Amino acid sequence: ELRAANEKQKQKRTRSRRQIPAEEGLSVQEASQLITEPVEAVEAPPPIGREGLRHLYNHERGHYQQ
Hints:
This protein is 42% helix and 6% strand. By secondary structure, it is mainly alpha-helical. The chain has one domain. A two-stranded antiparallel sheet has the order 1-2. A hairpin with a 4-residue loop joins strand 1 and strand 2. The chain starts with a helix and ends with a strand.
């Protein structure tokens, strides 16, 4: 009984280490190129002020709509 349980645990450990070879993906050269390339900064939109959110506020209930 104990040996069977031990064997089962051993099979689970070896099974979880298997890797499926990727047919598509990045090569080492492509990955290193992506790492070294500078990334363009994307400017965040300006924040919405109180007036911009006013249409969402429910004055009767005293809270914002969901």
